[in-house]
Amino acid sequence: MLVRLRFESFEDFIHMSGYGTWVWASYGIFALSLLSLCWYLRLKRKNTMKKLKQFYHRIELENS
Amino acid sequence: MAWQWFHRWGSPRWFYERSQIWTRVIGFLALAMMLVGVSWGLAFAPVELRQNEVYRVIYIHIPVSVVALGGYILMALSGAVGLIWRIKVNFMMMKSAAIVGAVLTFLCLVTGSLWGKPTWGTYWVWDARNIFMVILFFLYIGIVFLMEVYRDEEAGDFMVAILALVGVVLIPIIYKSVDWWFSLHQTASFKLTGKQGIGPSMAVPIFINIGATYLFYLWFVLSGTRSEILYRERKTSWVRNVVKESQ
Hints:
The complex is a heterodimer of chains A (64) and B (247). Chain A is 78% helix and 0% strand.
């Protein structure tokens, strides 16, 4: 199994023999979707912490 | 004694504390493997004779499709374990699993469509595999919404687990759809027995990306479950301490 760079130049790599639009669009959407999932997790963690702080604050107010 | 670890993972507190290190390790491995697999598939794998460079879409299309299907089975299994042993953590895992599963199914449909235009001449055909993948996407979305609809968490968990288990019937249908019905889709490239439809120089990066996507799936489920545990266990003193320490 030979592993070597299959493109002569960076332009060839971007062009992908005329199929660059389809290949890069696929990889772009893939990367954006995974990054969105990471961003969602971050937001979820932040919102959970915010809700919990409000929850404990409310309990403290009710007890005092 | 052998099953002690299994019951321990069922404790939300134990799961939350132990999963922290695993989440980091799995996240790092997923990122490293994905960088290797994607670079290999894009720049180092040999060109395909008939489809030319456009075939490089398979290095993401196959991994997201495999994990969208495999992830559904894992999610349904998690629901079954939750129903049988009454383990709350399993229901919490289902929520994150449904979200990541829906995104992976969406990616499978979109990358398949982008691959289809230059090879089939169309973005979409109404063939069995495409239709059942769309149904799977809506099933995932339905599970996510069903979890949000119920105010009573226990009733919601029960209904979601039942829906997920019923939906498992779709997975073998999707897998065998290219054999059972006429389709533009090619038949399976990887077989358990007999001659493989794809050579090792092209197959290795696909396997690396499948591994990376499974690790990403696992990382997302573990991370999402950790936040879910904190919210659902908010009335316990240990969660209060976690929140206090984070301030």
